[in-house]
Amino acid sequence: MVALGSGGRRIGAQPQQRIVVIGAGLAGLSAARVLHDVTVLEARARIGGRIHTSRLWPDLPMDLGASWIHGQRGNPLTALAHEAGVQVVPTRYDAAILLGPDGTEIDPDLRLAEQILARALAATERQARDVSVLQALEASADWQSAGADMRRLVTYLINSRLEQEYGSPARLLSAWHGQDAKVFDGSDVLFPGGFDQITTHLARGLDIRLSAEVIGLAPGEVRLADGNRITADRVICTLPLGVLQSGRVQFGEPLARGRQAAISGLRMGLLNKCWLRFDRVYWPDDVDWIGWLGPRAGHWGEWVSLARTLDAPILLGFNAADPATEIEELNDRDTIAAAHEALRAMFGTRFPAPIAAQITRWGQDRHALGSYSFNAVGTDPATRRALAGADWDGQVWFAGEVASADYFGTAHGALLSGREVARRMMGHK
Question: What is the pTM (predicted TM-score) of this model?
Answer without folding.
Answer: 0.94
